[in-house]
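Support request, please re-run this one:
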Amino acid sequence: MGNYDGKRVLITGGTSGIGLATAKLFLDGGARVLLTGRAEETLGAARRELGPHALVVKSDATSLSDLDDLAARVKREFAPLDVLFVNAGITRFAPFEGMTEAVYDEVLTVNAKGAYFTVQKIVPLMTGGGAVVVTTSVANVMGFPMISAYAASKAALRSMVRSMAREFLPRGIRINAVSPGPIETGILDKTLSPEALGPTKQAMSEQNPMLRFGRPEEVAKAVAFLAFDATYTTGAELVVDGGASQL
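Re-run finished. Output below.
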C-alpha cells in the first residue's frame, strides 16, 4: 500500500517541472491525480509519461470559464478533493525600464489572478482536513534584476496564502506555500538566449550556498509534506532554495 492510497489530488501547471515531479510522487504513492496544462505538446508528453492512472486536462488558469469547467469535472470525477496544488505560473525576463503593459498584465494575470480564482473555484470541492499548496518563489523576499513583475506576482501570492488561511480555518482546510529557489526545470533553457544561458546558470550555481540548482523532485517532497504531514501548519511558506534566501 502507498502513502497516498485513495487520496485525490489536483495539480495545476502539472505537465512539466515541479508540477510533473509532484504528480509522479503522488501517483507512486497510490493517489489519483488530475493535472492541468495549456500547451498541447506538454499535455501529450505528460500523458505518455504518467500513463493511464493520471488524468491530464487542458485548462487555462487565466480563463474563468476554463476554471468553471475544471471545477465541474473535479466535482464529477474527483470530489471530494484532498489536495489542491496551485503550481501554474510563468516567468518573463525584462528590465524594469523596459517592462511593457502587456508583459506585466500577462505575468500578474497568470501568476496572481489565475491562482486566486483557482483556489476560489476548487476549495468548495474539498473535504475538511484537506490542504492547498501554492507555489511562490524566493523572489518574493529577495531582489533580483529582470523579474520585477514576476517577483510582485509571487509576493501577492504569499499574502493571499495568509489571508486565505484565516478564511479557511472554519472549513478545516489548511493552505501553505512552497517557495522554490533556483530549480532545474528547463525554464531558463526556454527563456534565455544560448549565449546568456551558460553564464547565467553558472553564476546562479556559484551564488547558491549549496553551489547547485535544486531538482524538481526535491520541491515535490516539500509539497507532499505540506499537503499531508504538516497538519498543524497553515498560512506558512516552506523555502526550498539551497539556503539562498536564508544564509
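Residues 98 and 185 are 26 Å apart (CA to CA). Strands lie at 8-12, 32-37, 54-58, 81-86, 126-135, 174-180, 237-240.
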